[in-house]
Amino acid sequence: MGYLESLVAGAIHARIREFVRSRGLGVATGPGARYRKLPGLMMDPDVAFASWERHPDRRVQTETVAGMVPELAVEIVDEDDTPKAIEEKRNAYFEGGVLSIWVVHPRRRIIAVYDHRTPEKPALHAGDDAIEMEEVLPGFHLPLADVFGELDEQAPETP
Fold this sequence. Notes:
Elements (H helix, E strand, L loop, with lengths): L2 H21 L2 E4 L4 E5 L2 E3 L3 E5 L13 E2 L5 E5 L6 H14 L3 E6 L4 E6 L2 E9 L3 E4 L3 E7 H5 L11
Parallel strand pairs: 2-5, 6-7
Antiparallel strand pairs: 1-4, 2-3, 4-6, 7-8, 8-9, 10-11
């Protein structure tokens, strides 16, 4: 993940984490967190949310690889990702039990939201759109300006 992708991942993680922690819904993780899909098979989304219901014993996992699958997996597309690789990862996530997958294109400022009920028909979000996820995070609302706005920032001019 490059610099630009990391900024976007951080913005998404911060908003999801704030939402789930303030409501006691579960845990949001950032890049580097690994989840066990099946014995010997792992997933490593750039951002994820797993409710307490998916956590064994309803506790934070202390293992290197969490023994569960998150409800939400977010993939930040960088210049090295091929469409085929993203599709394979998306299919593996759904096979493992993920309910919603976001494929984020920072350079195009688009987020494709895939739902497990209609995995081949993503909802595309761009511009002034906002993402809501009633099944996974009821009440969550994420304007894309909160995700991509930082990409336009620059230091104020000094006198």
